[in-house]
From TrEMBL, chain A:
Belongs to the binding-protein-dependent transport system permease family. It is found in: Cell membrane. InterPro entries: ABC_transporter_permease, MetI-like, MetI-like_sf. It comes from Skermanella aerolata. This is ABC transporter permease. It comes from the Bacteria. Coiled coil: none annotated.
TrEMBL record, chain B:
Keywords: Cell membrane, Membrane, Transmembrane, Transmembrane helix, Transport. It holds the Pfam family BPD_transp_1. The keyword Transport applies. This is ABC transporter permease. It comes from the Bacteria. The keyword Zinc-finger does not apply. It comes from Skermanella aerolata.
Length: 290, 283
């Protein structure tokens, strides 16, 4: 695996203490528990998964399934639209939370709530909110206009959009916080120098903030894309993949095939996603193991 | 001279113009959850923004298990707690050992293990769920809490090892050398030098694994199925399957389930923010 070439820094810092064989023995003992976990619960399932998806015919069957094709598009919508929108808002909001006001400090404590609470209750809360008959949204629409509101989650486009919004709601605080810490790391002197030179706030962002934040921003976006690929809850608990299986993403599709007792398809769907995942993973490994 | 205060007011107004929507956006689903929890059954569906007669009756029903959806509430809460605590403890144990071996003892192959773990960390857990489910079946662990605990340890360990390794790389090596000169064995080094110095990171990592396991839905609902074995989030998900689900009770249960992790998060915020978020993404 060429992902192992990532770090050469380990070779510089401290020299190995040769001849101290006790170190070696204890080092091995300390490493064994994780290696066992890795062998039994990562290596074995992964090999087994590939073995289940070994038949080329399965892939033909998979690519002929319109639901699979649809879920690829949905996943890309999540990654390209959802994640970028989220990161952009996070970048802007991190600038907002930079302001030193007592009420903003309080707001930042509240703002982190979606990240701090488990996603199941809040997603179900949104789901009930959007219920066509009893949900509070349509109740209010009826009160105000005397007309029935739309059946929100029964429309594939709206359903997927709300899944993306739920996803953003949940993880926006985390990324805002990360980008905020990035902004805080920028030296105040640079802003002062810029404002002495008469730079407007947009110019300050363009010439001071963005150059310092660029790497962090790109890393965050890629990492968020990887994590979003695995976001099962935002779709499964809100729309359940419906209506008519049109809002599935790759993370929920595997479970759908499992339910239908088509484990080989389930694994094949995941294997087909690897060309999308591995480059992202490789890039992140290069970044993080430095 | 009047332009200055005016500009200041305009600046504050601009901040409020951002702050108020952010507040509403953040609180909406949580407020809705709370609204249901304190509303009597019929009032919950009236579309009011505040119940006419707020009540704690729903909490009473949930805590007394007074509804057939909730017969196992305490047991399921207990299951969640057992799974979370066991995962936290086991992850901490395994990850601390591994990080110590890799970072301080510089064991051969340590770097390979670190990279493999990091690689695992970046593969979305949802992708591993189906093979993990089948594997647990082969190991005969399905429907046992152990299946979920071991799966969660697998998911939590890579990041835990990475964070601990980053933290322990920062400790000065002179400490180890001095201890070794004094005749300390690696085991003594671990207990007397390493663990005390690593305390803040250990708290962060333990909390991370604990919360991860408490919040987990996908693995829990795949690996556990008996009503007496499932964790609370699975029970919440099962509510959905029925048409006559008592929403207000579901929301109340959800609120009770959400409180402990929120409390832990705020209590350990200092560790979570410095220990985890800073480590999560280095530029």
């Amino acid at each position: 695996m060429d992902t192992l070439t990532v770090s050469d820094r380990d070779t510089e810092a401290p020299p190995k203490r040769r001849g101290w064989s006790q170190t070696r023995i204890w080092g091995t003992i300390f490493l064994v528990p994780y290696v066992l976990v890795f062998l039994f619960f990562v290596v074995y399932p992964v090999c087994y998964g590939f073995w289940l998806a070994r038949d080329p015919q399965t892939y033909v069957q998979l690519f002929e399934d319109p639901i699979f094709i649809r879920s690829i598009f949905n996943t890309l919508f999540f990654l390209l639209v959802g994640v970028n929108l989220k990161m952009l808002v996070a970048l802007l909001l991190s600038g907002f939370f930079l302001h030193d006001r007592i009420w903003i400090r309080w707001l930042s404590l509240i703002f982190i709530l979606p990240w701090a609470v488990p996603s199941i209750p809040t997603i179900l809360s949104v789901r009930f909110m959007l219920n066509p008959e009893w949900g509070i949204v349509n109740q209010l629409i009826f009160k105000l206009t005397a007309e029935d509101g739309p059946n929100w989650l029964n429309d594939p486009t709206l359903g997927l959009t709300f899944s993306v919004l739920v996803h953003i709601w949940k993880s926006l605080p985390f990324w805002t916080l990360i980008l905020l810490s990035g902004r805080l790391a920028i030296s105040k002197d640079m802003y002062e120098a810029a404002s002495v030179d008469g730079a407007s706030s947009i110019q300050q962002f363009r010439f001071v903030t963005w150059p310092s934040m660029k790497t962090l921003y790109v890393t965050c976006t890629l990492l968020s894309m990887i994590w979003t690929l695995g976001d099962f809850n935002s779709v499964y608990l809100l729309t359940g993949g419906g209506p008519a299986d049109l809002t599935h993403v790759l993370a929920t599709l595997g479970i759908r095939y499992l339910r239908l007792d088509q484990v080989n398809l389930s694994m094949a769907a995941i294997v087909s996603a690897l060309p999308l995942v591995l480059p992202l993973v490789y890039f992140m490994m290069r970044r993080l193991s430095k | 001279m009047t332009t200055r205060p005016l500009a200041k007011i305009a600046g504050e107004a601009k901040l409020l113009l951002i702050g108020i929507p952010v507040l509403l956006w953040t609180l909406l689903p949580i407020y809705h959850l709370l609204l249901f929890a304190i509303s009597p059954r019929d009032a919950a569906f009236s579309g009011n923004l505040w119940p006419e007669e707020p009540t704690l009756r729903n909490f009473q029903i949930v805590l007394n298990q007074d509804h057939y959806f909730l017969i196992h509430f305490w047991e399921q809460l207990g299951n969640s707690l057992i799974v979370a605590v066991s995962t936290g403890f086991l992850t901490l144990l395994i990850a601390t050992f591994a990080a110590f071996a890799i970072s301080r003892l510089r064991v051969e192959g340590g770097r390979t293990v670190m990279n493999l773990a990091l690689f695992t960390y970046f593969i979305p857990a949802a992708f591993l769920a189906v093979p993990m489910y089948r594997t647990m079946g082969i190991y005969g662990l399905l429907n046992s809490k152990w299946a979920l605990i071991l799966a969660m340890v697998t998911v939590a360990s890579p990041y835990a090892i990475w964070v601990l390794k980053q933290a322990s790389d920062k400790l000065p090596y002179e400490l180890d050398e001095a201890a070794v000169v004094d005749g300390a064995s690696p085991l003594q080094l671990f207990w007397m030098v390493y663990l005390p110095l690593m305390k803040p990171s250990l708290v962060a990592v333990g909390t991370y694994a604990l919360l991860l396991a408490w919040n987990e839905y996908l693995y829990a609902f795949l690996l556990l199925s008996r009503d007496t074995e499932i964790t609370l989030p699975v029970a919440l998900g099962n509510f959905l399957a029925a048409d006559d689900s008592p929403w207000e009770l579901l929301m109340t249960t959800g609120l009770i389930y959400a409180l402990p992790p929120a409390a832990i998060y705020y209590a350990f915020k200092r560790y979570m923010v410095s220990g985890l978020t800073a480590g999560a993404v280095k530029s």
